[in-house]
Structure formats: C-alpha cells, structure tokens
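Late entry, written up from scratch paper. The run itself happened at the end of the previous shift, but nothing got recorded in the book at the time, so transcribing now.
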Amino acid sequence: MFDFVGFNVKSTDWFQNQAKQHLYLSKSWLDTLVSTYKFEIIIAVDKHDRYVTAFCKRNDMMGKRLISLPFSDYIPFTEEDSSFYENLFASCAARFPEYEIILRTNRAVKLLEKPYKLSKEAVFHTIDLTSDKLPKQSSSFTRGVTQAQKNGVSIQRSTSLEAVERFYKLYHRLRFDKFNIIPQPFSFFENLWKTMINRDFGAIFEAVYEENVIASMFILEHNEIAYYKYGCSAIDFLQLKPNNLLFHELITHFRERNYKAIDLGLSGSGESYAGLRRWKSSMGGDEHPISYWSYASAENKRDNKLISENKKVLKNLTDAMVKADLDAEQTSLLSDQLYALLA
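Output as recorded:
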C-alpha cells in the first residue's frame, strides 16, 4: 500500500532527489497549479518515501474527485504490471473512500479490468533528439518550412512577461474563433512564467511577419526535455506556414542544446484528431498511448444527475462567454473563477 502526504510537506530538495523527474510531477508544475487554482495537492509515496505520483483532491459542484493531475496531459509510469495500478487504486480508496479516483497514465489500455473503468484514450508524441541524424520528417513539412522562410516569416525566442501577454491574446482568440471554448486564465500562464520561464526553464517561441506575431508557442523545459504545452496562431496567416518554421526552429534549438526529446503533447485518439496526429508525425514525432482510468468505491455517493446538470450550467456559461466575444482580459477574469471546475 502507498501513503499520502501534503504537497507542502515535501521540500524542494526532496523533489530534486526523486527518480520521477518529469514536468507533470515537478515542484514547479505543482506550484503553478496551487498558485493559480488553490488546488489541494497530495503526494503518494511508497514505504521508502519514494515519489509514486501526485493527486489533486477536489470537492466542488462536479463531485468529490482525486485526480492525477488536472491540466496535465498524462502522468508518467514505468510499471507494466496491473497489480501496481490495482494497489494504487486500493490505497487511494482506503484513504479517500468518498472520492472518485481518476488516473491518467502513459501506459496502454490493457492494464486493468472491472471494476476499473477506462474513461478515455488518447496519445502523445515525442521527437527523439538523441540521434546524430535529424528526425525523419515528411516532405510536406519541410516544404512548409521553406515556404515560411520565403514568405519572410522569422522566429524569435523570448522569456519576457510581455511575450506571455502577446501569447495569451493570440491564444484567447484562437480558442474562441476555432474551438468555441474558453482558455485558462492569464494568471495560469503568468504563474508558469514565474515558476519556470523566468527561471530559464522555458521560453516563448514566436513567429513574426511584418513586425506582427502571427504564431506563438509556450515551451516548458524539465530534465533535458522540452514540452510543447500550448500553441496558437492567427488563422488569417496560416497560409504563410508559420507553424512549420516554429517547429523547425524548436527542433534545431534543442538539438543544439543536446536535449533528449521534445514532448509534443496530448492529441485525441478519435477521427476528428487524425489531422493533428498526422501533423505531429510529419515533423518526426513518435506516437505513444495515454489511458485515463477511473474508479469509485461503494462509499462514493456521487449524484450523477446533479453533476450532469452542473456540467450543463458550466457549459452554458462558457458558451455565453464565447458568444459574447469577450476580450482577453474579460475572459481571464471569468476563467479565474470557472476553470478549476474543469479539472
């Protein structure tokens, strides 16, 4: 069985000395979640006080949930034996019997059987930078790089808060116009800047055309891996191929710094995400599985009807924000109050 301790109990040195060194389990990432959303973070440890994973304990209008971890693409595990995950679920249920347990893993879907529920499948892509050769890329991707260069697009790297502000305005616009959903509040990105980018653990990569930023990437760095966590571009300038040049620059930059890999982040597994998966593969990304599992013990008194109604109310609110075409500042103020409910 595993034990659970509060996030604030563990020192920075403890985190740095753990074998599980990954962005989504790092102190910086957890600090950002706590600072932005006031989440209660709990660390799971084994009998030797070794880091197993982290959870966010939530009790709100969406029910009681123990989540590993909100707004994280996946949580890294190396174990292939289903008994490890059964033990982890059992430990969580014994300590938090009234909470639904949600586990996001970078493992394949054949880990568990009933009563554990496979709630979602997805994938993530990584580009291996350890080879002497460039990652294998499609001809369409490399043509796009050349086209962007001929079009006069250039790339700049910044660690300034002003670059974060530029990113957020563009990111807000893309989320509204293309996806009809709200972004996380600006405070989330500002806290990532404070905990990581301002400490030289990341940067904003920007594509510039005629002195205007037309595409931007929010890159986080941890343990010689670069994480492409958030990206956005101006829809009216996509024909200039700014994203091809951005990723080309990203790969070049981190190869020169002898990084191990670039993590290209989460993609859905359904047909609607097929184009995104092909895009990430086209630049040399290798695909890996993600599986989301959940479990609720008999002591979990979840009112599914009420939670479903609450989800509809939240969706109606966020849809109204998009329909009203709120600006980035207005959206951020409301997102500050609402986004934690999407955990």
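The mean pLDDT is 95.
(Scratch paper discarded after transcription.)
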